[in-house]
Amino acid sequence: MTEITELGYVTVGVSDIAAWDEFASQILGLEVVRPDDPKIRYLRMDYWHHRIKLVEDSSDDVLTTGLRVAGVLEFRAMHKILSDAGVDVRIGTADEAEACKVLEVMFLEDPNGYPIEIFHGPLVAYDMPFHPGRRMHGGYKTAHGGFGHMMLNRSVEFEDIHAFYTLLGLRGGIEYKMPIPMIPEPVELMFLHCNERQHTLAFGGPSEKRVNHMMFETERMEDVGLAYDLVKQAGIPVIIEPGSHANDQMYSFYMKNPSGFMSEIGWGGRSPTGQSEYYQRDAFGHAPVMENMKGFMVPA
Ligand SMILES: [Fe+2]
Asked: Which CATH number is associated with domain 6-122?
């Protein structure tokens, strides 16, 4: 089957890399790896070489999204599918693949103009088990579900986004028509899945950036609570209070990270149900913290 199998990695441009060192390790509990280049950090949460690459720049946004296919045959088939569909796609050189820590990579953009890297063969370091940056009750839940999910803003119609990601093998559709404070019409949100994680990519989240939020899932509920306590102690703005989503049924909360978009920490998400349905509100909680949303989620 030629389809994306998981959200493999993301590269994020960050203006304050020192603040991210502290946030990633002491708040999120990720392992921060410092390569020779002082403008780069690798963030680990499992055996992979990295799941997040931070690059020092002024964008404070997602620079590229790494989507995995199973192997070399699927990689070639995906390249043919995209080329036949008229998508502008370029297979990277051996040096480019090496820089991405994968066997092969191709470069393209989605209909929003967001850069995508489709790859196979990530570097997996079984000699380097995940070493959290601070105490954790358990690890991060990544296997068979990618490293998490990401909600992005959109600049084109849902139809165009749906058609493109269907080509990549993702499935899903509109799952929320959600009233958001200070936004006049209910906000429609599209959720797409490709594995046992209920959604891997989502579109329509209000943001001045490409990215609205990025979610990591812990293996134990206690780690959501621990992260919440650490966020409160550090004085980091909570954007959405703890609660349970209607679609993935994840128990989670959202905080503002040093790049000004949201990080979500969750536990207990379900798998896709295989049939479409939509929601107007979450199961419980998830109250927005209005004063912390102003200027990036709602008008200042
Ligand atoms: Fe989320």
From this structure: 3.10.180.10
pLDDT in tens, 8-17: 999 999 999 9
Q: Which of 269, 192, 284 is nearest to 224 (CA)?
A: 269
Structural tokens at position 279? 């929601």
Centroid of chain to Cα 106: 19
Please tell me the distance between residue 199's alpha carbon and the centre of ligand 1 in angstroms.
8
pLDDT digits over 142-161, tens only? 988 999 999 999 999 999 99
Predicted TM-score of the model (pTM): 0.97
Other residues' Cβ atoms within 10 Å of the Cβ of residue 22: 14
CA of 216 to the centre of ligand 1 (A): 9
In angstroms, what is the span from residue 213 Cα to ligand 1's centroid?
Answer: 7
Do 239 and 257 meet the contact criterion of CB atoms below 8 Å apart?
A: no
**CA of residue 234 to ligand 1 center, whole Å:** 22
The domain defined by 149-293 carries CATH number 3.10.180.10: yes
Place of tokens 């989620």: 297
Cα-to-centroid distance, 283 and ligand 1 (Å): 14
CB 278 within 8 A of CB 270: no
Cα of 266 vs centre of ligand 1, distance in Å, is 8
Calculate how far, in angstroms, residue 205's C-alpha sits from the geometric centre of ligand 1.
Answer: 10
Q: Are 67 and 10 in contact (CB under 8 A)?
A: no
Ligand 1 center–CA 77 separation, angstroms: 31
Return the DSSP state at 120. Answer: E
pLDDT tens, 200-219? 999 999 888 999 999 999 99
Domain boundaries, the chain: 6-122, 149-293
CB 292 within 8 A of CB 261: no
Distances (CA, A) of 169 to 2, 158, 159, 235: 7, 16, 15, 41
Q: Do domains 6-122 and 149-293 have the same CATH topology?
A: yes
Compute, in angstroms, the gap from residue 162 CA to the centroid of ligand 1. 18
DSSP state of 59: T
